[in-house]
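> agent: user asked for a holo structure of the chain below bound to zinc ion. Plan: (1) validate sequence alphabet, (2) canonicalize SMILES, (3) run complex prediction with ligand conditioning, (4) return tokens. Step 1... ok. Step 2... ok. Step 3 dispatched.
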Amino acid sequence: MDKKKKRTIIILSTLAVIVLSGIIFYTSYHKWNEATCETPKTCSICKKTDGEPLGHKWVKATCETPKTCSVCKKTEGEPLGHKWEEATCKTPRTCSVCKKTEGKPLGHEVSKWTTIKESTCSKDGLKEGTCSRCKETVSESLDKVAHTTGDWEVKTNCVISAQAVVTPGEEVQKCKSCGKELNSREYTIELTTSQRNAILKAYERVNSWHCGRDYLINELLVSDDGYPIEDATFAVDHMNVDWKEEAVKYAKENGRGESKNKLTEEMLYYGFNQEQIDKALVAVGY
Ligand SMILES: [Zn+2]
Ligand SMILES: [Zn+2]
Ligand SMILES: [Zn+2]
Ligand SMILES: [Zn+2]
Ligand SMILES: [Zn+2]
């Protein structure tokens, strides 16, 4: 064989191999679509199939949905429907399977109540009865009753200044049974001449000499100045005076060189009470 022939044979056989393998490759090539519930793996070009369909994954029917494939959502048959149990006193109409409810409980039916505890103005009462439907003993609270309004009484006294100017006080109406304050209003007083003079005198006295309440009333205003006991008491009890402070002032002005016992005795005599005296003694350093 000459060289030329030899080369032609090589080229031809190479071409033949290429064409042949192309044919083999083409006939064995498929474009597979995955299997579904109802169709097997299928070639979209030649429709050749491989294996079996997957089959549905059935989920059982419920009260409200039919038997359903969880993959492709295909359904079969009808929903089962609810199994209703009728409403009772305490529960609404309820499906015994899925527990779905409809409407409201009926509530108890009590025809005859017995009062167990009467209500007052501050506390609810209690009544009991038997339900004619379920025979259960039922209790309910009874509403509070209204308060009983009492008379007006002074809560905060009027205060009268050293110039006999009256600052109004407060009076209230309380409930007669529970004591709760129901109404409140301002009140003021018209001073009589004797009350007015007693006030002016009382301030004058207490400013020049710091004494206690009782001494101011009894010894100074009544005995020394001659006011009636009612006016003297009225005046002193409506003054703008802090008796604890007066006690401290007394102890500061008169305590020098005095023993604790002697000063206590003196202050009791001048109308201070034990509590006022104790605080005053502490304030001056005893
Ligand atoms: Zn194919
Ligand atoms: Zn399916
Ligand atoms: Zn149901
Ligand atoms: Zn009932
Ligand atoms: Zn009350």
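> agent: step 4 complete. Summary for user: Residues 104-146 form one domain. The pocket of zinc ion (ligand 4) is lined by residues 89, 108, 131, 133-134, 136 (CB under 6 Å).
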